[in-house]
Amino acid sequence: xxxxxxxxxxxxxGFFCRxxxxxxxxxxxxxSDTRRVSDIQWFREAYGAVTQTVRVVATEQxxxxxxxxxxxxxxxxxxxxxLDNVGAFDWVIENHGDEQRLEEQLEHLIEFVRSxx
Length: 117
Prior knowledge:
Its main location: cytoplasm. This protein has helices at 2-11, 15-21, 37-47, 60-65, 78-81, 99-115; strands at residues 54-57, 91-94. It is mainly alpha-helical. Strands 1-2 form a two-stranded parallel ribbon. The longest helix is centred in the last third of the chain and has 17 residues, at 99-115. The mean pLDDT is 90.
């Protein structure tokens, strides 16, 4: 499956992005799992300034406390870290284990989305 997806992306970087929005109209799109620079570029080209990027970050320690274990060949693949060196995101949500802080950050994001409806 991963190989097939990579082949599709190499032939047409916007293949999966177009599939998401094909024949559908929404006032706001929340695309929860972009993993590559080409995904962000596609949405910026297609939707321009209304595109907002959200990055969720967590320390390695907090991830390990949730049971995450680094797996070579998986966790260092482009699908997992292809956006690590992207410049600024419009929103950065810190998910380090502080539920109150997480809720506050998400509330700001939700308020922003509601203001665009």
